[in-house]
Amino acid sequence: MTESTGQTAIAHTNIALIKYWGKADSALNLPTTSSLSLTLNEYFTKTRVEEAAEDTLLINDLPQDSQRVHDFLNVLREEKGDFSPVKVISENKVPLSAGLASSASSFAALTAAVAKYNGWDLSLEELSRLARRGSGSATRSFFSGFAIWEKGSNDHDSFAHEFNVPDLPIALVVCKISGTVKKVSSSDGMRRAQTSPDYDQWVAESAKQLDEMKQALSQGDLDRVGQLAEANALAMHDLNLTATDRRFTYFNQNTMKVLEQVKVLREKGYLAYATMDAGPNVKIITNQEQAPAIKDFLVERFRKIQFDIATPGPGISYE
């Protein structure tokens, strides 16, 4: 262990353009599909670990139930060898549990901070593999720009890696429809979605969309990137509506209204495609030139919704 009193790591959240929605192994957080994401500059988690009498968690200066973090830290202890209890101090610049991937940046930052704190010399891919046990989406938050989480077949080959493409002027207009905790957690939502009679078809189609997405990104075809991301996301949310185990939706009335305006924007000639994770918030894929105009268009129509512009972000960093 280092002689310093603590270690801080910063991880940025990511938005999946080809989604992770379903587990092949719940205990190991192995996904049913590979996924592809964009790391975002504007949303991040800064996490510090310090020696303590027991594992504890503070988020934005408020004590939290630390059971999930404690269980994850024990996974790291089993994997890498025992280490003393730690106090986890997390500063989250992402709305919690609202479909903006707060758990992704949180568990990526925690994994990196603990590894550095204990002096483990680990590759980004190994950090990604370890973080998967805390949150599947965290696998992708170690990398700048685009990342692919390979679904793998076991605990050792399911991790993410960077997907290098030519510089793309991609941007997201983030519509923060709700920042409240969602009623159906991502884990429960996935489990229920997997009871949909359409689930196996979605898995097969997602694999094709991933291949097409990689090609579109490599060619710099942002319009095709948007088309694929929107189709993949809408099909994912359709699974929730067709689940045989208590069908549900993350959408609310404003979600539907914003989605309608995305169609209007396209009719007006804008590059605008929607994607949504497990929550009501809509992210509109566009380019950096058009993003401000799209934001202004939406602000005029939705006075009570907060709109931000997000751009490609960096990989893991330390303080």
From TrEMBL:
Residues 173-304 form the Mvd1 C-terminal domain. Keywords: ATP-binding, Lipid biosynthesis, Lipid metabolism, Lyase, Nucleotide-binding. It is an enzyme of class 4 (lyase). The keyword Lyase applies. It holds the Pfam family MVD-like_N. Its EC number is 4.1.1.33. Residues 11-160 form the Diphosphomevalonate decarboxylase-like N-terminal domain. GO terms for molecular function: diphosphomevalonate decarboxylase activity. Signal peptide: none annotated. The keyword ATP-binding applies. Belongs to the diphosphomevalonate decarboxylase family. This is diphosphomevalonate decarboxylase. The gene is mvaD.
